[in-house]
Amino acid sequence: MKKSLLKTSLREIRSSFGRFIAILAIVALGVGFFAGLMVSEEAMLKTGETYLDEQNFYDFRLMSTLGFDDDDVAALRDADEVTAADGAYQVDALVSDGGDEEKVGRFHSITEDVNKLSLKDGRLPENAGECVVDSSFFEGAGIGDTVTIADGNSQDTLDALENHELKIVGVVESPLYMRMGRYSSEALARLKRSILCRRMRSRLSITRRCISASTRAADFTAMNTMTASTIRSRM
């Protein structure tokens, strides 16, 4: 019985070999696609975690309209649970392209310990008249060009920037902007802190020991409590 069934199956395969191969390919493609989906999520998450670890991406980010001074940053940096803390300046400003058109640009100060930049071309700024730009909006050909702050900005914005003409010396990638949908400005530039005249940092990024997805909510509450008590103790 088994031999007869085998002979019949082989005869049918030989008589319609092309159809058999097509069905086999469809099944193999479906299995391969499903297996790839099952594996890709873990691989993508691991790749993202590795990149964020290498760039020392922040675990917690504090923002204040009053700002943070050097003592605030130092107090949080010295906390037991904190591995790194760094304050940053941020300014949104209109940028002139040399004609009548103006675009919105977001300017960040470069942080050393947290949210590290990945240099793709050129070099990092060495003086107050230089900046690096985001690779999503600028190619290597932009190195050497000048970013001009438009006169149409408010006086507060103009006062916040020491130099209104900045030479592009490098192209970078930032862990703060990994998805195009997160950009709120058309171009992003990173500056040495000396370029920004604001004395108070508006953002403070913190990395903490042993952060995990399962304990992130509890860690967030604990960090909020620790941050509030640390800053309150200085008042």
Structure described in brief:
The protein is an alpha+beta fold. It is 35% helix and 29% strand.
Largest sheet: 6 strands, mixed, barrel
Mean pLDDT: 76
* Helix and strand composition category: alpha+beta
The oligomeric state is: single chain
Low-confidence segments? 211-218
- In percent, how much strand structure appears in the residues? 25-35%
Please compute the radius of gyration using only Cα atoms. 27 Å
SSE ordering: HHEHEEEEEEHEEEH
The number of helical segments is: 5
User: Outline, from the CA principal axes?
Assistant: elongated
Euclidean distance between termini CA atoms: 91 Å
Binned, the helix content reads: 25-40%
Spatial arrangement of strands, main beta sheet: 3-4-9-6-8-7
Q: How many beta strands in the DSSP annotation? A: 10
Which terms summarize this structure?
5 helices, single chain, 3-stranded antiparallel beta sheet, 6-stranded mixed beta barrel, 235 residues, 35% helix, alpha+beta, 29% strand
What does this structure look like?
The chain has 5 helices and 10 strands, in the order ααβαββββββαβββα. The protein has 235 residues and is of the alpha+beta class. The strands form 2 sheets. Strands 3-4-9-6-8-7 form a 6-stranded mixed beta barrel. Strand 3 and strand 4 form a beta hairpin. About 3% of the residues have low confidence.
